[in-house]
Amino acid sequence: MTCDEARIICHKTQYKDASVWEILKLKFHLLVCNACASFSRKNTKLTTLCEEAALRNLSDKDKFRMKKILEEEI
Amino acid sequence: MKLAKRDNNMYQLNPHTWVDRYADYLFNYAIARISDEEIAKDLVQETFLAGLKSAKNYKGTAAERTWLIAILKRKVIDYYRKINSKKGKAEIRIKYNPGTESDGDWLEEQVADPGSILENDFIENEELGLAIQECISKLPKKQSAVFTMKTIKGLNTEDICNELGINPSNLWVMVHRARTALMECLNENWFK
What we know:
The structure holds two protein chains of two kinds. Chain A is mostly helical. Chain A is 80% helix and 0% strand.
């Protein structure tokens, strides 16, 4: 497995989208690759930060409505 | 973030891009102060309209977003003034919480304690949220859309691919680029 492939699987694990086989391959890769192990730690930290921040976004519908009202005034 | 600047290093306003660039950032700022989602949305909308009305007073010394946040801050203050002045009341609204197990019921006990871990966590999480939103706004549009749909809205891969007309491999490459850029951005703006 290349580092590029490992990093993509690392992202998938953040969203629980990786298969069991992919997780096993990733775990093995992380044991032998320090750069990807460091990347994985940072990536997991980013997930934790996003969860702690409890980000909220406006829906597309809300944004469309806002744009419409704003464009009418411009 | 790509800021619109004139040749003489002054910022300029571009209201056509306000909703795409700042609506989520302003919404997160408002929702942290006013827990009512609908009121927070209204305040963001009012901020854009007020910004448009006072555009002629914009001197170009502050970035567009900083200027819009300043307007939103005033809107939030006005909102609290308005609800406190309704029914002609001028008192500060603090619930007495007689049912709690605290030793006394003095109002001082109800005031936020600056040393409290919970208070500090709340402030830090709010600042973190705004720092992340700022970093997201620096991403290319498609990466920002993919990251937002996957991380904030929690949509599944198939739905995002269908909506954006991309295949899963493209999606994960975009997620990779977005997350790598965000890690670097937060490293610069949050951890330093």
